[in-house]
Specification:
The protein is of the alpha+beta class. It has a single domain (3-73), classed as TATA-Binding Protein (2-Layer Sandwich). It has two helices and three strands, in the order E-H-E-E-H. It has helices at residues 14-21, 51-73; strands spanning 3-10, 32-38, 41-48. A three-stranded antiparallel β-sheet has the order 1-3-2, covered by helices on one side. Strand 2 and strand 3 (41-48) form a beta hairpin. The longest helix is centred in the C-terminal third of the chain and has 23 residues, at 51-73. It is globular, with a radius of gyration of 12 Å. The protein starts with a strand and ends with a helix.
């Protein structure tokens, strides 16, 4: 059984954010990540077998999204 988090973040240029972070998505040790843009939103889906992996994935990708946004990706 997998735990799953679906997150939507409104953003002016979600394609830029997704493109910036996409290379990091292939790491699949503790969790699986899918990220894509739709209209004016970044969609993030994190899945893990346990809560520790789920929290690690959510926190990691939210930090990456924030870093891209804070450095002019917004």
């Amino acid at each position: 059984m997998f735990l799953k988090a679906d997150i939507e973040i409104e953003h002016n240029d979600p394609d830029l954010v997704v493109k910036s972070i996409k290379p990091d998505i292939d790491v699949k040790d503790k969790f699986n990540v899918k990220m894509y843009s739709e209209e004016n939103k970044i969609k993030l889906v994190v899945e893990s077998k346990d809560i520790t992996g789920l929290l690690a994935g959510v926190n990691s990708y939210l930090r990456l999204i924030r870093a891209v946004t804070d450095t002019g990706g917004n």
